[in-house]
Specification:
The protein is of the alpha/beta class. The structure holds 1,6-di-O-phosphono-alpha-D-glucopyranose and magnesium ion.
């Protein structure tokens, strides 16, 4: 039976995926590395340092910087990102998320968060959603970023439920891979092309339907 929902943060609960995009784009362009939305898809759900490495590799500049310089590039991106998230308020919870959380709660199911972001706690507090979640698993708790299944498995373990009793919700290809690797049912939010591995896909959060997700979950398990 279904016992829990585990949500990604950036791009699912709130629009912060767009802020990561803008902050990385500014840094890449400063380094004369072209940056497209298509390439940005590869960074979603990936840790800060791994994202920087992917950008430098793309620009053929992997060997141009010392570790110290790379740390300061990552810090610069994060400072830029933090200027965006400073402005987040409870109004920035994406449409459809609060009704879905209320529905999940009213059925007596558990709710978890799985975000590899070091800023996840601050974003959740700004959204005033921290109390709505039974567990928040972020960069502080895990050692491997998505697409490794560690983060979703850790959330299930802390919620005291089996992975097969969980539904994971993600906007990133790496995140869907992480959910499937954990042995969970995956709901994707975004383009069907990018999220082909998901069991059920919605174009955006306003279309999320508890009844439909439950029906599909019961069909597949
Ligand atoms: C998020 C984003 C990624 C970001 C990562 C690390 O993960 O999707 O783009 O690079 O966190 O974020 P930070 O630099 O804030 O530590 P998630 O899992 O919430 O999608
Ligand atoms: Mg995401």
């Amino acid at each position: 039976p279904l016992k829990a929902f585990i949500f990604d943060l950036d791009g699912v609960i709130t629009e912060s995926a767009e802020y990561h995009y803008l902050a990385w784009k500014a840094l890449a362009e400063e380094l004369d590395i072209s940056f497209t939305r298509e390439f940005n898809e590869e960074l979603k759900g990936i840790s800060r340092m791994d994202s920087l490495d992917k950008i430098l590799t793309r620009g053929g500049r992997m060997n141009d910087f010392t570790q110290e310089e790379k740390d300061s590039l990552a810090t610069k991106k994060n400072e830029h990102y933090r200027t965006f998230i400073k402005k987040i308020t409870p109004d920035d919870v994406l449409p459809g998320i609060e009704p879905l959380l209320a529905e999940i709660r009213s059925r007596g199911l558990k709710i978890g968060l799985a975000s590899v972001s070091k800023n996840a706690a601050d974003v959740m507090n700004s959204l005033r959603l921290t109390e709505e979640f039974d567990v928040i698993v972020d960069a502080a708790t895990i050692s491997k970023s998505k697409p490794d299944p560690e983060i979703f498995l850790t959330a299930a373990r802390l919620l005291n439920v089996a992975p097969s009793e969980c539904i994971g919700v993600e906007d990133a290809a790496a995140g869907v891979t992480s959910i499937k690797g954990a042995g969970m049912f995956a709901v994707g939010v975004g383009s069907a092309e990018t999220l082909a591995e998901a069991d059920l896909i919605y174009a955006n959060t306003s279309l999320l339907s508890y009844e439909e997700i439950l029906a599909e979950f019961e069909k597949r398990t």
